[in-house]
Design a protein that fits this description.
- This protein has 234 residues and is of the alpha/beta class.
- It has a single domain, classed as TIM Barrel, CATH 3.20.20.70.
- It has nine helices and eight strands.
- The protein has an eight-stranded parallel beta sheet.
- Helix 7 crosses helix 9.
- The longest helix has 21 residues.
C-alpha cells in the first residue's frame, strides 16, 4: 500500500510558509510527517507582485534534504534560468504558460537536463492552453489561488478545472500528473483528490498552525491513504 500511495498521491509542503530562520528544523518536521516533495515558490516581482527565494536558497536546501525539490518559477521569461535552477539542485521545474514565450523549447530544455518538466496555469487560464504541450509534460501545476501570496482563499471553480484536465489526460493517454497549489488543507484535501489531484501543495495549512508541520502532514497522509484504499477496494 505504501508504494502505491507514494506513486498516486504526493504531499508537497510549500517552504515559503515555513519559518525560514529555522528552515532545517522545519524540513525535518515535514520529513518525519511523511512529506514526499518540497515545493519552492520562486517569484521575481514582475510576473507576480512579490519577491521570494532564489538560487542560493535552493542550493542551501539541497544540502539538507533528500526530498524532491519542486521549483515553481513564477518569473518572466523563465527559460533564461533553467540550467541555473538545475545546478542549484531542483528535481522538478514548472514554468507558467502565461510567462514562457517559447514553451516547447523551455519544457524540452528542462527534460534534457534530466529533470521533471511541468507547466503551471493560473486560475483564469483555461486548460485548453496546454493542448499542444500536454503530451510532453511530466506534470501540470494548476493554481487554485492567484499566484504571488500565501494564505489566499481557495477558488472553488478550480475543482472542475482539475476534472477537465484529468479527463483530457485520460483521453489522450498521457503520462502527465496533476499538481494543485493554493489554500489546500485538511478540510478540502479529500475533494481535491477526488477531482483528480495527485500532487498536493500546501503551505499555510502545514506551517502556520499550532499543531506543528509534522502532525499536519501526517494527517494529510492519512486522508490520502484512506482515499487510495477506497480506490483500490472499490
Amino acid at each position: 500500500m505504501s508504494e502505491l500511495l507514494t506513486k498516486l498521491i504526493q504531499i508537497a509542503p510549500s517552504i515559503l510558509s515555513a519559518d525560514l530562520a529555522n528552515i532545517t528544523q522545519e524540513i525535518k518536521k515535514v520529513e518525519t510527517g511523511g512529506a514526499d516533495v518540497l515545493h519552492l515558490d520562486v517569484m521575481d516581482g514582475q510576473f507576480v507582485p512579490n519577491i521570494s527565494i532564489g538560487l542560493p536558497f535552493i542550493a542551501s536546501i539541497r544540502k539538507t534534504t533528500s526530498l524532491i525539490l519542486d521549483a515553481h518559477l513564477m518569473i518572466e521569461d523563465p527559460g533564461r534560468y533553467i540550467r541555473e535552477f538545475a545546478q542549484a539542485g531542483a528535481d522538478w521545474i514548472s514554468v507558467h504558460v502565461e510567462a514562457a514565450t517559447h514553451l516547447d523549447r523551455v519544457v524540452n530544455n528542462i527534460k534534457e537536463l534530466g529533470l521533471k518538466a511541468g507547466v503551471a496555469v493560473n486560475p483564469a487560464t483555461p486548460v485548453s492552453s496546454l493542448e499542444e504541450i500536454l503530451p510532453e509534460l511530466d506534470f501540470v501545476l494548476l493554481m487554485s489561488v492567484n499566484p504571488g501570496f500565501g494564505g489566499q482563499k481557495f477558488i472553488p471553480s478550480v475543482l472542475k478545472k482539475i476534472q477537465k484536465l484529468r479527463d483530457q489526460i485520460a483521453l489522450r493517454g498521457c503520462p502527465t500528473r496533476i499538481e494543485v497549489d493554493g489554500n489546500i488543507g485538511l478540510d478540502n484535501l479529500e475533494q481535491i483528490l477526488k477531482a483528480g489531484a495527485e500532487i498536493v501543495v500546501s503551505g499555510s495549512a502545514i506551517f502556520c498552525t499550532p499543531r506543528g508541520p509534522g502532525d499536519v502532514v501526517r494527517d494529510m497522509r492519512g486522508i490520502a491513504t484512506r482515499y487510495v484504499r477506497a480506490l483500490t477496494t472499490a
